[in-house]
Amino acid sequence: MSTSARFTLPAVPAVLFSIVSVQGGAAIAKGLFPALGAAGTSSIRIGLSALVLLLVVRPRLGKLQAAQWRAVVPYGLTLGAMNFLFYCALARIPLGLAVTLEFVGPLVLALSGSRRWLDGVWVLLAAAGIALIAPWQGTGLDLLGLGFALAAGACWAFYIVLGQRTAALLPGSVAVTVGMLVATVLVLPFGLAGGRLLSLTPHLLLLGAGLALFSSVLPFTLEMQALKTMPTRTFSILMSLEPVAAAVSGWLLLGEQLTPGQWLAVGFIVVASAGATLTTARPQPALHGE
Questions:
Q1: Whole-angstrom Cα distance, residue 115 to residue 24?
Q2: How far is it, in rounded angstroms, from Cα 111 to Cα 270?
Q3: Within a 10 A sphere around the Cβ of 81, how many other Cβ atoms?
Q4: Distance CA 166, CA 70 (A)
Q5: Pick from 188, 175, 224: which is nearest to 61 by CA?
Q6: Which of 5, 145, 178, 210 counts the most CB atoms within 10 A of its CB?
Q7: What is the C-alpha to C-alpha distance for residues 206 and 58, in angstroms, rounded to an integer?
Q8: Residue 118 pLDDT more than 90?
Q9: Mean pLDDT in the chain?
Q10: Phi-psi region of 231 (alpha: psi -120 to 50; beta: other; left: phi over 0)
Q11: Residue 39 and residue 88: Cα distance in Å, rounded?
Q12: Residue 285 to residue 227: CA distance in whole angstroms
């Protein structure tokens, strides 16, 4: 039996392990915020992920054509903005709520252009979820954090569209590697401007390496592996579970408590996401946004 065959997971466990890995990475990220801030943590995650992918994939940057650069640069900028904005949200609101609100972006993309009455149900469910999360009565939630999460969701929707265009011109691994490089160029100046990267210690660097592994390298590998054999619709339905996984991870790993209304909001958006995936003609493979 070959080495690759021994380490290949079945598609469904691969996606589930990917979800768990990302939420574990988010817990590491939140632990780094006091020392590095959202910008510094985002810079470490994206920069180290780009370095690992460069060593593994070894793309020939000099061989890329102008059309390929025109596709991959916007893709990478969107990738960097998405991750940076998500960490800005995560620094202010619980993990479960940040991921739940970020999911609104892919959900809106999946429902865009639809005129069927059933898709209106998913829109109403998602809207009800957002309304339950919104700090209408002084719930203590940070309004700017909620805005950052929704902005990250908007970037996620653009990331999916731009990713599909880039994948048509470049192999997936090359597209993500070059995209990570472009994202690093975007985010690193913010991390350096914060000044906290200058106080980077070996311990923080080790945690940053774990963050890059669990949040980017491992999930990307598992998801690409799963998509080789799993229908896009099934993949997207499984990914719809991520807000619940994030809320549970926030509770278990970070001690973050959600109110019953916030848990209900998570449930509404999960059902809306899964329902939209089942009823739309061409579901989008919404790879991890955070």
A1: 38
A2: 14
A3: 21
A4: 9
A5: 175
A6: 178
A7: 23
A8: no
A9: 83
A10: beta
A11: 8
A12: 9
Q: Is 141 helix (H, G, I), strand (E, B) or coil?
A: coil
How much is the average pLDDT of 13-27? 87
User: Pick from 42, 44, 53: which is nearest to 178 by CA?
Assistant: 53
Nearest of 166, 165, 125, 131 to residue 146 by alpha carbon: 131
Least Cα distance to 37 among 199, 186, 153 occurs for 199
The answer on pLDDT for 209 being more than 70 is yes
Indicate the pTM of the whole model. Answer: 0.85
Angle between helices 11-57 and 218-227 (to 10 degrees): 120
Q: What's the pLDDT at 189?
A: 92
Contact (Cβ atoms closer than 8 angstroms) between residue 182 and residue 80: yes
Share of the chain above pLDDT 70, in %: 89
Structure tokens at 114: 């639809």
Which two structure tokens, joined as six digits, stand for 149?
């999460």
Q: Which tokens belong to 23?
A: 């939420």
